[in-house]
Amino acid sequence: MxxxxxxxxITILSVAHFYLKSGALVSFATFAAAVFGVIVAFTxxxxxxxxLLSRGYGGQWALAGIxxxxxxxxxxxxxxxxxxxxxxxxxxxxxxTKITAIVxxxxxxxxxxxxxxxxxxxxxxxxxxxxxxxxxGDSAVTIAKMRSPGKPLIRADGIVAGLFGWISKGSLSSxxxxxxxHDDFLNQVHLNNYMARKKVYTVAGNRAVRVPxxxxxxxxxxxxxxxxxxxxxxxxxxxxxxxxxADGDVAFMLGQVRLICKxxxxxxxxxxxxxxYPEGRIVSRRRADKDAEKKDLTGALSGRVLEKRxxxxxxxxxxxxxxxxxxxxxxxxxLAFKVPSDKEAVLLEFKQNVAVEVPSSSLASEEAxxxxxxxxxxxxxxxxxxxxxxxxxxx
Length: 395
Hints:
The chain is α+β, with helices and mostly antiparallel strands and about 400 residues long. The protein has two domains: about 1-185, no CATH class; about 205-385, no CATH class. About 35% of the residues lie in helices and about 20% in strands. The protein contains nine helices and 17 strands. Strands 1, 2, 3, 7, 8, 9, 13 and 16 form an eight-stranded mixed beta sheet that branches. Strands 6-5-14-15-17 form a five-stranded antiparallel beta sheet, with no helix packed on it. A two-stranded antiparallel ribbon has the order 4-10. Strand 11 (about 325) and strand 12 form a beta hairpin. Helix 1 (about 1-20) packs antiparallel against helix 4 (about 95-120), helix 3 (about 60-85) packs antiparallel against helix 4 and helix 4 (about 95-120) packs across helix 6 (about 155-170). The longest helix is centred in the first third of the chain and has 31 residues, at about 25-55.
């Protein structure tokens, strides 16, 4: 209800302003300013957010705040330039002027509405704002629910996200496509914010996680053809590149971790990707949760258990999880994914703003498990490199 009211108010006011105040050329220039505002906001909000977080500023509000400021500044600059250029607007006739005003006003209103909805979704507020896309924060979020989320009657946020995703694959395509890093963008931001009210941070430092060499292991058919990914979480606060909260622990939702996959012969970050969410966490028997649906694993991971959980399940890493052999180290978390047989994982994403490249997958083996459990493995050559987001599409 909040979303549709915002969309209607913004769109009606936009059309009214265009109809009463703007000539044909100014109307079109204002619409163009809104489009360029979206491009700049989506392109630079993540790099600037990570820069602020590394200096200890902004916190969880940095994503939404920078996103809005980039759009507003870009829109204002281009709109001001249009006033200088078209101070004496060309008279194209009353009919053309009014039609242009209505069409451009409607489109601009939808774009501004979409920006507002995306900003509210990025902010660490209630999962009901701007609308309950995945529920109210009390019910379990499943992978099936992600395929059929709740949507407002007018999908203004889908328009702006889809517009930039299309642009990032086309005229502004680059080696870091938005459609790869943020496939299913709206579900991602709404899910990332799902437990913010329970002090699950929506952001992390840009070195919060890594995937070691041999850290992506494929299991056989007896284990439902799962792919297990070893994620090592840095023991540091956000300013220092980690994800530790004020209480000294790291808390994240299962749904705040996802794999980005691409066809096996296209393992770069161009074009578009497919987001795969975890089925659950792999744990030892002694730590198995009695309330979780469990599956005993076989083969190289024999003796371990897959705990199937909802995507809203909170995983908390305490101080002892960051100690291995009495020494401080990254906390080790094994997560199970069902990667399509024709796809290969290229990125692991953590919370809203962290992405790391992952090594090529290999069949699980006892040797790989021993390596991972003794030394934690080494970063793969060219892999496990922190990537902060698509950045400038022209780079």
